[in-house]
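Incident review: delayed structure delivery

Summary: a single-chain prediction request sat in the queue longer than the usual turnaround. Root cause was a stuck worker, restarted by the on-call engineer. No data loss occurred. The affected request and its eventual output are reproduced below so the record is complete for anyone auditing the incident later.

Affected input:
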Amino acid sequence: MATRSGKNNSSGNTPVQRQERRKLWRGVIVLAALLLLLVAIGFLLFWLNCQFFDRNARFTLNHITIESTGYWGQSAENRAELLRFMRLHPGSDNLFAIDPAKVREQIKSIPNVADATVERILPDTLQLRIEERVPRAFLGYSKSDFVVDANTMVMLSRQCFGVHPRLPVIVGLRDEVREGVMLPKLANALDLIMRIHRSFPEFQVVLASVSQPDRIFMILDYRGRKRYQVTLPAEQKPELLDVLRSAIEDALRNNDQRTNINLLFDGSVVMN
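Output delivered after worker restart:
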């Protein structure tokens, strides 16, 4: 009898073990039921979303408003061009089937766009606000097909609003130029152009050459009175433009006819 009892214990058929197995199976069944319930709820919510939002005719996209002070808000043709690019279809698309985050990234992929916001306005409107990049220089020659902003982004000039014919021209770039790329090699020249634009209105930058990596050659008009050829180090010192302005003012007072100015020698002014 003792031997038979030992076999039963070792085979896992004791009342306590059978009770533990039943508890385990009940737990497994309850867990499976909960999972099935969660799946069913998920499908129900998906169905309800489709019925009440994604496939609801009341939320058909009927209006797209585009707010931009630049190219994309300039005319009906430009707005239509933007809608074609984004593949939005007023009258057929559902407002809730459109992901505002994806639309925003799509708009930001356009070279002349700096930033954008996209919002749904119930029941049928998508609102786009676009901040466009400001062209700061032509690339290669005046009236070029390509312009560049202060952050070195290359853009098509025809897609930029307010491209002034007297924008500076940047030359000397040996890389292939195409829209939608940034050109870090232009950073120093553009920083210099922007500093002159903001703080030295008496200067008008006509041309900047970046053909040599350690220096920038510029053609400048001073107060519309005289044109100078100026060579500066690529790495700018804050006071260098003040030195240049003082040197030109002294030259004009003294009726100095020299127009070539070299500022490569540690702030010293060499004119010839």
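Verification: The chain has a mean pLDDT of 88.
Action items: add queue-age alerting; document worker restart procedure.
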